[in-house]
Write a structure and sequence with these properties.
The strands form two sheets. Strands 14-13-12-11-7-10-9-8-15 form a nine-stranded mixed beta sheet. A six-stranded parallel beta sheet has the order 3-2-1-4-5-6, with helices on both faces. The chain is α/β, with parallel strands linked by helices. It is globular. The protein is built from eleven helices and 15 strands. The protein has two domains: about 190 residues, NAD(P)-binding Rossmann-like Domain (Rossmann fold), CATH 3.40.50.720; about 180 residues, Dihydrodipicolinate Reductase, domain 2 (2-Layer Sandwich). The protein binds nicotinamide-adenine-dinucleotide.
């Protein structure tokens, strides 16, 4: 029991207010002594001591890490760079772009010096810029490996967008480069920092759904060739695959972080609409079934011609439904169970915290020297699993998996 009243005011606040109101009425009539339950404001109130901080304080500018953004496309300009500006630990100190005019405009807007604007040819000169600690790769997937490795060779830490790379071999080379440079590598799986997903994971770990034995996860969006950002996504060399590499990866990664284990086998099917120019090189729809050591099952669905974004956790004592699960904003978590019926689980922080959350997480991993929550090995695992799904669909057969998520040969 708490002493919360229906208005949300505590009983003690209500009493204070009531006393204040009564005193106000009385004072209007005649001078009265100050009631003893009104606070007395000390003479030195204008110079109060430091208040207790309820949130982690942002670092002062001089203590923040310098972040360099590579690729000034849609996601970088609309999400990544504004999130760096809102973060607690990062400062935008450099830009890399093939378009000098665009880079100059962004630099002026965010206060990045002209000398810290690079292009793809002189990119390696970032090694001489001590104001760059972390490089954030926001390029088409097929370029992630090259620029991640070059950033490590320049002595920087790296945040790399999902999917980590086009192939497992590239992922291995990126991890090896990170180890050679002794610098952190994090894959930008923002949903790990999204408040509704964090809450659902906490509820699952607290046993609120019972034993979660099945996850049904579908992440889909319409691929629209009229948008420049979708043009490279239909080319295998730049995209590495279709909807599964781009959007289905959220369903996969989410199912695995909710279950906390790696599958041992999977089977997948792919279907493409005939004569649709978008799907000459990459897939439209994919469904997959994954089996796990615990006996859990996962069903995944991904598509570029449908729209869905939900992850459902099915437990012995109830379900958790994230729908939408991984949007930039407006995510929702619903719990169903015998004791609660169906309820929307209140989550106080906005979904937008996912972007600043991942940036602050890597900054702190660098400053405090810990392994990021979404490391290179996780990116490799997911690329390995997607490649296994493609192989399964092509062979029309189950494939077995290694502990790192890659396909067991044979
Ligand atoms: P985009 O096309 O808008 O941006 C890509 C940028 O790379 C452009 O500025 C483009 O000029 C530049 N570029 C450099 N070399 C290029 C080349 N050879 N071909 C094409 N473009 C080249 O794409 P985007 O949507 O911003 O995606 C960029 C990355 O961010 C991708 O890896 C994508 O998966 C990822 N992404 C992640 C999220 C997320 O929620 N985490 C959302 C969107 C995109």
């Amino acid at each position: 029991m708490t002493d919360e009243t229906p208005s949300g005011l505590s009983r003690r606040s209500m009493l204070k207010l009531a006393a204040g109101t009564a005193a106000g009425v009385a004072l209007a009539g005649q001078a009265q002594a100050q009631p003893e339950n009104l606070p007395t404001i000390p003479d030195e109130a204008t110079g109060r001591p430091f208040p207790e901080a309820e949130l982690q304080m942002p670092l002062p500018p001089g203590e923040r890490l310098g972040w360099c953004v590579v690729g000034l496309g849609s996601f970088a300009l609309n999400q990544v760079i504004p999130a760096i500006a809102r973060s607690q630990t990062a400062r935008l100190t450099a830009l890399v772009s093939g378009n000098a005019d665009k880079a100059a405009r962004v630099a002026e807007h965010y206060g990045v010096p002209d000398a810290a604007i690079y292009d793809y040819e002189n990119f390696d000169e970032i090694a001489d810029n001590d104001d760059i600690d972390v490089v954030y790769i926001v390029l088409p997937n097929g370029l992630h490996a090259e620029y991640t490795i070059r950033a490590f060779e320049a002595g920087k830490h790296v945040m790399c967008e999902k999917p980590m790379a086009n192939t497992v071999e590239e992922c291995r080379q990126m991890i090896a480069a990170s180890e050679r440079a002794d610098k952190k590598l994090m894959i930008a799986y923002r949903a790990h920092f999204e408040p509704h997903n964090e809450r659902a994971l906490q509820m699952k770990e607290d046993g609120e759904f019972g034993d979660v034995k099945m996850v049904l996860a579908s992440t889909m969006r319409t691929l629209d060739l009229s948008r420049p950002r979708d043009e490279w996504r239909v080319l295998r060399d730049l995209a590495g695959g279709g909807s599964t590499m781009d959007i289905g990866i959220y369903a996969l990664n989410g199912a695995l972080y909710f279950l906390g284990e790696t599958p041992t086998a999977l089977v997948a099917s792919i279907a493409n609409p005939p004569d649709d120019v978008r799907f000459r090189e990459v897939e439209d729809m994919l469904t997959a079934q994954l089996t796990f050591p615990s006996g859990a099952l996962v069903n995944l669905a991904s598509a570029y011609t449908l729209n869905e974004n939900r992850i459902q956790l099915l437990g012995t004592e109830g379900t958790g439904l994230l729908d939408p699960a991984t949007s930039y904003s407006g995510n929702e978590l619903r719990q169903t169970g015998p004791d609660v019926g169906t309820r929307i689980v209140p989550v106080s922080e906005p979904a937008a915290r996912q972007f600043t959350g991942e940036i602050d997480h890597l900054s702190r991993a660098v400053m405090e020297d810990f392994e990021p929550r979404t490391p290179g090995a996780m990116g490799l695992r997911d690329v390995g699993l997607i490649m296994a799904m493609y192989a399964s669909a092509e062979r029309n057969a189950w494939v077995t998996l290694n502990p790192d998520g890659t396909m067991a040969e044979g």
